[in-house]
Write the structure tokens for this entry.
Amino acid sequence: MNNTMPEARSLVEGILKGLEQSSTNTNREFLDIILAPPFPFLSLCKELIKGHSGIHIAAQNCYTEEKGAYTGEVSAAMIYSAGAKYVIIGHSERRNYFRENNAMLLKKVEIALKNNLRPIFCIGELLNERKSESHFKVVRQQLAETIFQLKESDFCKIVIAYEPVWAIGTGLNATPEQAQEIHSFIRQLIGVKYGRKTTQNATLLYGGSCNAQNADQLFAMPDVDGGLIGGASLKAAEFVSIIDSLSKKIIDELH
Ligand code: PGA
């Protein structure tokens, strides 16, 4: 919940300008950049990215129901019609401040898929769960009760974002090794549930205090396919620098 309309406009314009001047520009076909503005700015952002390939729009949430008398809520169909391709579901702030539980999140995922949106589904443990070393159990359960209920063809449309709650907005990022450890665990779980091909193709993002300083090291991890960037995405130059880090990883992998 940051930025007014004029601020959002100048942020997106700054990002687009930064991308034009960056090395990422020449490698755009290998990576997807997704901008996830608040609801009132979805159409504006869609308009601004016109003609820029490889850049997409996501909403930050959607409601569990198709349509009707749910004043104040926003449906997946509305989001899709505003030009978004993705929707973030299950962000820890939604889980914690708005009491969204796994059953509700599964409904949101299903309604998003039904309306042609690809969910960016967030999972991750709280600080006390990390301290008591139950993070593997927590993540396994979050997956089992939500997106692992989907049939394989639907699961393939999901982007997973692992975000340790203690790292979101705190300046405390997971170390690259911690991120790799749990990403590789998640990939194993996907493999057991859906098989090798699906797990190889799955996209696993890391989120939580990812910034221009630590992006290189985080993205260097083999099972970290990208990032879900919060605070650092509010500064155009820093966000572009993070995208450049991912672009470098992709080029290295292609060689
Ligand atoms: P952060 O936020 O990058 O500011 O930690 C991540 C998020 O909101 O998911």
User: Anything to note?
Assistant: DSSP finds twelve helices and seven strands in the chain.
